[in-house]
Design brief:
Largest sheet of chain B: 9 strands, mixed
Strand order of the largest sheet of chain A: 10-12-11-13-14-19-18-17-15-16
CATH topology of the largest domain in chain A: Rossmann fold
Strand content of chain A: 25-35%
Largest sheet of chain A: 10 strands, mixed
CATH architecture of the largest domain in chain A: 3-Layer(aba) Sandwich
CATH class of the largest domain in chain B: Alpha Beta
Strand content of chain B: 15-25%
CATH architecture of the largest domain in chain B: 2-Layer Sandwich
Number of helices of chain A: 10
Distance between the termini of chain B: 52 Å
Oligomer: heterodimer
Distance between the termini of chain A: 63 Å
Order of helices and strands of chain A: EEEHEEEEHEHEHHEEHEHEHEHEEEEEH
């Protein structure tokens, strides 16, 4: 069946329908990872967005459920050049075609994803509609497409109930803002007992459990929208508990301490971005997925100092908080998908929790 | 970290002659690195014995030495030039081994030369089997259980402990030379014995066999600050067990999930860090297909064939970055030349699929074993890019130029299912065609996978292509039933077929719709090729460097630009015997010259190993097959003002007619004149008009006609197809049976062109490369071949200047050249081969294009032939360019070009020289005297004699008289001569002491025992011409080659070798090519 991708600037791409045939409007973003399509699909940070894979051959190794980064896929839509007709991998349990259908994710394949990516690069992230309906007059739906906003996605993706992942070591409170599983797994591998809290949890509840450390997770959407969470994070900041934050968690901590965030033209999504650790001067290849960034100019030098910077465009990639056992990064040390080069940051967090104050 | 200011003068060592396992990729890497160093103001001293390379050009380095790659020469060079640093990682294994030898002997330290890039201890840890194993164990990286052995008994004992089969890898050899898989003790003894002999250090690694696992490679980079990145990973379609150089390779990996991908990526980065490599490195893995278990197969701490491929596949210039890292820069300081926005620390990502296919030489060695194994056999490779695997594979297939254009190009329909299964089990160069046939018969993916161990994903992709063939065939059935083309071949099917890169010609064949009609249908349906950019970043950033590939279905990104005149330069495709790196030299220099003339330049080529496919050579690069349809797609977008075909070898020449049809003017010699030189009858007419004699001959189509012609001419006759290169299919026939056999072989490949039968004249062979501007000619020099006629010019030792001919011979040749160039209206290059028999001069071949000798003759005469020819093509006159027309005065040096062979790599190939070219590369000896040049040439070719001073001679009766004085010279050099009975008798009769030995079939000790005794320096074996080669001779020659004994099959070569050995001068004088004077030009500038 034919499917159409209509961008808010009126561009129409015609391809074939994959997954669900329902119509969807969302923000369109691209990801340049060459592997890890299932991790991308199940990363809650994509809630509210349709994701374009720039690598043209998707689904080659099927679906390996243990690689899912959350219980379900989150993108509103999925855009690829070609889906593999047969999966080949010893762990594969399913095909991507079936997976998209099963979770009712609409998508389109057979389009020139490179042309689409270039458009997004040049015009910036746009909204778009994936539909199997042929609109005679596209202009009639443009205003609906333009009106779309990613909203309320943190609460949607966060866990509804607090739960505990057992461990015999440090006790870590993980505030789930739309967390990828490998954050908890990375802590668990280091012996931590991880208590996962819903995003709307009050700071007092977390602090009263007296964790050895707090982990703020990644998550979807515009960080500034999360006014209440930011207020709670401010309280966590004021406590003496060591904090490590990733992606949205990093942005929210910055917002909670007076800095500001802004929307990048088309974001960073992929597994090849170099970030520089300003303390050591070393460069690491990182896994990235963010549309917003902390504005380096808005930092109060008495509160936070840049700890990582993106080598390509100089945007902020991490902060260390003055006089606090708090450090935060914009990229994804938990990888999945992507390089594991910055996994050492979890060790740094472990060390931070060791130090007695 | 800024660059190290102490580095001011760097010695770069190249890789020497092209041999199997060490091809043009090192010229590409070396050239890029030298340019990168010069960009930093570093003085570059270059050493390479290969004159056909671009790196040995004075534009590329400051001091250029084309000298033998021996430790003695490097030492001498260091003392002469006093470089402060040596960059060892760009010259392949040959360059690395030399650097290591000097580092280990303490010479470098003593002379204050530092190794930059990577230290000697790092190289040792990566290259030395035991040290490497220890390093891997230290960081917990798994390697297959293995042990280094130095004798056969230890090998047997260890193998008994780990079990058969085992893989054997000799230390310090290239291309897996002497390696193999042993399944039983007999095989173990044979391969191990051979490997121990070939290894520089007498070590062979015996290893658990992991054949059948997935073979995955990572190209990684590290700087001195310890920053690491992955440039690219690659998956071999062929499992472990087939050398990666002979495998079909895809980038990035296709069947690895993120878990496997990252697991191996992390491992590769850990390894490069542990070894402390600064620069590029290649890590090869075996990955178990059904688990996460993996083994590190090997690490190459240098640029390699794989790194060249990775560079071209991603757009990331590994050699350039490696050179900058060697100077001290860190990855985050080096700008990405493609995007100008990102840095070298950005990992490239692909938004397309790359397929590499090896170019195997079985069309040259028709008797060789085609089975592929751990010993590399490919002479070159092609790469193609598409957004899908099917399309990339289809493009790669037709880029090979081996009469293949689809999965139907080899016919296996005559084999039974059982036979097919046997063929699937012993994979050879036709494996994908065998699999396609198995799929057509309905063999299951699982069964094919079970036999071949090729991943099902790839097998499925072949099935997709086979199904498309079927759909097109069905469309053809409809067309035959009278349906209109539009109805028979729907838009949907045509769109899909083109999306998988089915060429129009194949679609036409399957659908019975004329090709022109297919093209018209495509125009009607709007199915046109679009070009996409290779930008290292999957379109995330705007790229500045236009490097394109074609795809069907999508937006075109290649936009013709500017107001400058545009020229299309057609490259020469994969490196093969007969068409090597020389043509890349010519293409690149022509491109640069056109650029200087104000043209916008566009290169089309498909060889990832070459300089011409580097993204900053031409204004635009199209990485595409060199077929008429593919080129036409480019022409449609670029609309060039002209195309130049005379620098890309026969590949480009073959496109001439198609270009004319597209309306693209051929710059330089006109198409009809190119054709006149290639068309026998038209060419004969021209010769007649010019009163130029040629050996009598005629054209035929059948064996019967050939025999009639031969009877008229008298045997021996030369039989060859027209329109070929490197004498492919050319043979000397001495009787009717030979003719039957040769014509049979020639006709295995569909022949549109006739077969030539010529009288064979025995004489001296000479060669001229000339430039003609339509009126005047410029002849840089005359080259003389040491071997008499009958040995292909590419396999002959070539001497400049010619010195065994008379003044009148010279005058005649110059006169003929002038007449022919004018008659053919040559504008640009012409190459002519002559036979001189006394005062008679005959023409045997004319090529209206640059030939394989152009780079060498340019360098030794100091005359920049290709740039001059390009200026002529642009309309200049020879006299305007500062040259006096005619034959130029002899240069101040003798230069001898020596062919180099790769016979030890091709099992079953006969090594005797004949009219069909067999050498893979060449080296140069340059000296003030003939003797010095000759000695250097033999040294450069790796012939280091005397050693044991024992030799074997076996010649035909008619050669005995000529042999005697030669044998006497070897005896005088102290050689003990063994000879077969007849030869020994003749020698002893003439007073040359020779020890008779028994023939092969006789009891031991016989000839073969002598060869296998390993104390023989040299065999002179003159086989009988014609097809009926003696089986004995063949076995002797093969065994000699495989045990590293030098074999000469021509008395002329033997004579030259004796001459070079008689030269007792102790030291050699090194010649800086960059200072070779151009006498004529000096004169011009004086006047």
């Amino acid at each position: 069946m034919k499917a159409y991708l209509i961008l808010e600037d009126g561009t129409v791409f015609t391809g074939s329908s994959i997954g669900s045939e329902r119509e969807v409007i969302s923000e369109i973003v691209f990801n340049t990872s060459m592997t890890g399509y299932l991790e991308v699909l199940t990363d809650p940070s994509y809630a509210g967005q349709a994701v374009v894979m720039t690598y043209p051959l998707i689904g080659n190794y099927g679906i390996c459920q243990e690689d899912m980064e959350s219980p379900a896929p989150w993108p509103e839509g999925y855009i690829v050049r070609e889906l593999s007709q047969i999966p080949s991998n010893f762990r594969s349990q399913d095909t991507i075609q079936h997976f998209l259908k099963q979770y009712d994710i609409p998508g389109i394949c057979g389009i020139d994803t490179r042309a689409l990516t270039k458009r997004l690069r040049e015009s910036g992230t746009m909204n778009g509609m994936i539909t199997t309906k042929q609109y005679e007059d596209v202009s009639k739906v443009i205003s609906r497409i333009q009106a779309y906003q990613v909203k309320g996605v943190v609460n949607r993706t966060s866990t509804k109930e607090k739960y505990v992942i057992p461990g015999s070591g440090k006790r870590v409170a993980l505030l789930d803002l739309g967390a990828k599983r490998n954050i908890a797994r990375s802590l668990q591998e280091r012996g931590c007992q991880v208590t996962v809290y819903p995003a709307a949890t009050k700071a007092e509840e977390i602090m009263s459990a007296e964790p050895d450390g707090i982990m703020l997770s990644n998550g979807p959407g515009d960080p500034a929208e999360n006014v209440e969470i930011i207020r709670e994070i401010r309280k966590l900041y004021q406590s003496e508990i060591p904090i490590f934050a990733i992606c949205l968690g990093h942005q929210l901590m910055a917002l909670a301490t007076g800095a500001s965030t802004y929307k990048l033209k088309y974001g960073h999504r992929g597994g090849n971005h170099p970030v520089k650790d300003l303390e050591t001067g070393k460069v690491y290849i990182s896994s990235q997925n963010h549309g917003y960034a902390v504005d380096g100019r808005s930092l109060d030098p008495d509160v936070a100092a840049p700890a990582f910077v993106n080598v390509n465009d100089g945007t902020n990639e991490g902060l260390s908080y003055i006089g606090k056992r708090i450090f935060t990064v914009q990229f994804h040390p938990e990888a999945c998908p992507g390089p594991r080069d910055s996994g050492y940051l979890f060790d740094r967090f472990m060390k931070m929790m060791e130090v007695n104050h | 970290m800024p660059r190290n200011p102490e580095i001011k003068k760097v010695l770069v060592i190249g890789s020497g002659p092209i041999i199997i396992g060490q091809a043009a990729e090192f010229d590409y890497a070396g050239t890029q690195a030298c340019r990168s160093l010069k960009e930093e103001g570093i003085q570059v001293v270059l050493l390479n014995s290969n004159p056909a390379t671009i790196m040995t050009d004075k534009d590329i380095a400051d001091q250029v030495y084309i000298e033998p790659l021996t430790a003695q020469i490097v030492e001498q060079l260091i003392l002469k030039e006093r470089p402060d640093s040596l960059l060892p990682t760009l010259g392949g294994q040959a360059g690395l081994n030399l650097a290591m030898e000097l580092a280990e002997s303490g010479f470098l330290e003593k002379n204050h030369v530092r190794l930059i890039g990577t230290t000697a201890s790092t190289i040792k840890r990566a290259e030395d089997r035991l040290a490497f194993k220890e390093a891997m164990e230290k960081i917990g990286e798994p390697v297959a259980p293995s042990r280094v052995v130095e004798n056969i008994a230890d090998g047997i004992a260890f193998t008994n402990a780990i079990g058969y089969p085992v893989v054997l890898r000799p230390a310090y050899t290239l291309g897996g030379s002497g390696g193999g898989i042993a399944r039983n003790q007999e095989e173990l003894e044979e391969i191990l014995g051979n490997g121990l002999r070939l290894s520089r250090v007498g070590q062979v690694l015996v290893e658990r066999c992991i054949a059948g696992w997935k073979e995955i490679e990572y190209e990684v980079m590290r700087d001195s600050a310890g920053n690491v990145i992955t440039v690219c990973n690659m998956e071999n379609v062929d499992p472990v067990g087939i050398h990666t150089g002979d495998s079909i390779v895809v980038a990035p990996s296709q069947t690895l999930g993120d878990k496997e991908y990252q697991m191996l990526r992390t491992s590769a980065l850990n390894i490069i860090c542990e070894l402390g490599i600064t620069g590029g490195c290649n890590v090869q893995y075996a990955l178990h297909p059904n688990s996460f278990e993996y083994c590190v197969i090997e690490v190459n701490p240098r640029v390699s064939r794989s790194s060249a491929l990775a560079s071209k596949a991603t757009g990331y210039p590994i050699a350039k970055v490696a050179a900058k890292i060697a100077l001290g820069y860190t990855l985050d300081e080096i700008k990405n030349g493609v995007t100008q926005k990102t840095y070298a620390s950005f990992e490239p990502v692909l938004d397309y699929c790359v397929v590499k296919m090896p170019r195997l030489p079985f069309d040259k060695f028709i008797h060789a074993k085609r089975v592929l194994g751990t010993q590399m056999k490919a002479t070159g490779e092609v790469m193609s890019i598409c957004t899908n695997f099917e399309g990339a594979l289809m493009k790669a297939i037709r880029s090979l130029e081996q009469h293949v254009d689809s999965l139907m190009s080899y016919d296996f329909t005559g084999f039974t299912d059982d036979e097919l299964e046997i063929m699937l089990d012993k994979l050879d160069d036709r494996r994908i065609w065998v699999i396609a046939e198995a799929l057509r018969r309905g063999m299951t993916y699982d069964r094919i996978h079970e036999i071949t161990q090729i991943d099902i994903w790839f097998i499925h992709k072949l099935e997709v292509l086979v199904r498309m063939e079927e759909r097109l065939r069905r469309a053809g059935e409809k067309a035959l039933l009278g349906e209109t083309a539009e109805k028979a071949l729907t838009q949907e099917v045509l769109e899909k077929a083109k999306g998988m890169e089915f060429p129009d010609s194949v679609i036409a064949r399957l659908t019975h719709i004329p090709q022109e009609k297919i093209k018209a249908l495509r125009a009607r349906y709007g199915i046109q090729a679009a070009f996409k950019m290779v930008d290292t970043c999957a379109a995330e950033f705007i790229a500045q460097t236009p490097y394109y590939y074609s795809v069907y279905g999508g937006e075109n990104e290649a936009k013709g630009s500017g107001h400058r005149k545009k020229v299309l330069v057609l490259g020469s495709g994969p490196i093969r015997i007969g068409q090597g790196i020389e043509f890349d030299f010519c293409s690149v220099h022509s491109t640069w010259a056109f650029c200087r003339e104000g043209f916008e330049t566009i290169i089309v080529n498909n060889n990832p190993e070459t300089v011409s496919t580097d993204f900053d050579i031409a204004d635009r690069l199209y990485f595409e097959p060199l077929t008429p349809e593919d080129v036409e797609n480019i022409v449609d977008v670029e609309k060039p003002d002209g195309a130049v075909v005379q620098f890309g070898g026969q590949t480009a020449i073959k496109l001439t007619k198609a270009l004319i049809k597209m309306g693209v003017p051929i710059l330089g010699t006109a198409a009809e004149d190119v054709d006149a030189a290639e068309d026998r009858e038209r060419f004969d007419q021209i010769l007649e008009q010019c009163h130029i004699p040629r050996p009598a001959g005629t054209t035929v189509y059948t064996a019967q006609e050939a025999k009639e012609a031969a009877a008229k001419l008298g045997y021996p006759v030369l039989v060859r197809p027209s329109y070929v290169l490197g004498g492919q299919g050319m043979q000397i026939a001495i009787n009717d049976q030979d003719i039957d056999q040769f014509i049979g072989i020639i006709n295995q490949i569909a022949q549109e062109h006739p077969i030539l039968v010529d009288k064979y004249i025995m004489g001296k062979e000479l060669e001229i490369d000339a430039i003609c501007d339509g009126e005047d000619i410029l002849i840089p020099g005359i080259m003389e071949h040491i071997e008499r006629t009958g040995v292909h010019s590419g396999d002959s030792i070539s001497v400049y200047p010619a010195n065994n001919i008379t003044e009148s011979n010279v005058e005649t040749m110059v006169d003929y050249t002038r007449k022919l160039a004018k008659a053919l209206h040559v504008k640009g290059m012409i190459n002519i081969q002559f036979i001189v028999e006394g005062e008679n001069v005959y023409i045997i071949e004319v090529n209206p294009r640059a030939s394989r000798t152009v780079p060498y003759i340019s360098k030794v005469t100091g005359i920049p032939i290709v740039p001059l020819a390009t200026q002529i093509i642009c309309g200049k006159r020879i006299s305007e360019l500062g040259y006096t027309p005619g034959l130029q005065p002899k240069g101040e040096y003798w230069a001898i070009k020596m062919p180099v062979f790769s016979f030890e790599k091709i099992r079953g190939a006969d090594i005797n020289l004949g009219p069909e070219m067999k050498s893979t590369g060449e080296c140069l000896g340059i000296g003030k005297t003939f003797h010095e040049a000759l000695r250097k040439a033999f040294q450069g070719a790796g012939i280091k004699l005397p050693k044991y001073k024992n030799m074997i001679i076996t010649v035909r009766d008619q050669d005995k008289e000529e042999l005697i004085p030669i044998a006497r010279r070897f005896a005088a050099l102290g050689y003990k001569i063994f000879a077969t009975r007849g030869t020994a008798k003749a020698l002893n009769g003439a007073g040359v002491k020779a020890i008779p030995v028994r023939k092969l079939e006789q009891e031991s000790p016989n000839l073969l025992d002598l060869v296998l005794g390993h104390e023989i320096d040299l065999i002179i074996d003159i086989p009988r011409q014609g097809a009926e080669h003696s089986h004995d001779g063949f076995i002797i020659r093969r065994n000699a080659i495989e045990t590293g004994v030098n074999v000469l099959t021509s008395l002329d070569t033997a004579k030259a070798l004796a001459t070079s050995m008689e030269n007792k001068a102790k030291s050699l004088t090194l010649v800086d090519i960059a200072t070779v004077k151009v006498r004529n030009q000096d004169r011009a500038s004086l006047s």
